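Hi team,

Below is the intake form for RNA transcription, translation and transport factor protein from Myiagra hebetior. Please confirm the fields before the structure is written into the shared record.

FORM ID: S-0412
PROTEIN: RNA transcription, translation and transport factor protein
ORGANISM: Myiagra hebetior
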Amino acid sequence: DETEFRNFIVWLEDQKIRHYKIEDRGNLRNIHSEDWPKSFEKYMKDVNCPFKIQERQETVDWLLGLAVRLEYGDNADKYKDSTPDGAKNTENTAKNAEPLINLDVNNPDFKAGVMALANLLQIQRHDDYLVMLKERLTQDAIAKASQSKEGLPVALEKHILGFDTGDAVINEAAQILRLLHIEELRELQTKINEAIVAVQAIIADPKTDHRLGKVGR
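The structure came back. Fields below:
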């Protein structure tokens, strides 16, 4: 919105950048003036903005950077020892980044989750649930998973699962497995099509055996 854009520029100058003296900001503050674009262009030159007036996205980004730099310069002692909220507790940050590192495999909830997932994926049950998890890690499966494959990213939320397990994580896992299954079906269909084409090529190019009085291989 043009009005909001102009107000934004005026706010940056008034509150953060303060390149002009207060009495010299009149033309920039007059956001309803037809000459405002000229005033803004002059302002950009005065603050040494390297972008043109038409490059609004780049201009806004540059002016914000200037405002942040000036704000820090005015309050360096206040900000120099600041720590981002998310990094105040390093231990919690590490845990959040690697949630499986501290996973308790003996936790009853974890065991119940494995059993529920096994039922969903129709994996044969075993007294030792860790052995049951390994059943899917065959050499063929590992070799196939190790093959690098390029493809387009998939937005899971756009694919309807068709059922609800009651657990968001398991729902997402099921969506992924279904998409992988569809991919395997497509590969199979491609091989079937290739076989059909090969058979049709044989049928369409028969060899004639006059001795037998018939056409065929």
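SUMMARY LINE: The radius of gyration is 33 Å.

Thanks, M.
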